[in-house]
């Protein structure tokens, strides 16, 4: 099935729904970040599909060919760069292939892997999201005329943030060896930055610094775990 097939009269992009007729596959393991993408897709007129890991994304692609793919670079079963490399060489190719990350230096790596564009996390502005996609589509897939865009930041449901906290708290209960801990701290850094949770972000950044320096990470893990539990309790009380 080809998700790029659309009926011209029913799926013509408009200034208020500039991504109408497109299907976007978001490869993102964070529920909070995925919810933000979902809201932006809905407001833009696009259909969204979600994969939370490389394996799930590849299964989607066996059945559907989306118009746009947005691939997070830090995933639980590997690097999104590997998927981008494969997709950039695939025939037929996805129309728009974007990478997403909040890590320094990720943009250069994404373009080297073959991405068309890059979304720096956190992605909170609807206009930036739409522009990143429209910059790489054919002129007949773009809306005619100026677009009116909501200037406010996209605000995902707080429950999605709670779900991410639960998942990472459970992950920290197990053996946190080097690769596992790097994934957890990368995940939490991105989510905390998106949610503007500066207390958690500072603790995670300190833990990442300890790990890079080869210091004892047990105190940092204990601090981050405690903050995650606090956020889980706060949400449960609401």
From TrEMBL:
Gene Ontology annotations of biological process type: phosphorelay signal transduction system
Alphabetized SUPFAM superfamilies for the sequence: CheY-like
Keyword line: Phosphoprotein
A Pfam family this chain is assigned to: Response_reg
Residue(s) carrying 4-aspartylphosphate: 72
CDD domains xref list: REC (cd00156)
Domain named Response regulatory: residues: 23-136
Entry protein name: Response regulator receiver domain-containing protein
Signal peptide (UniProt feature, chain positions): none
Domain of life: Bacteria
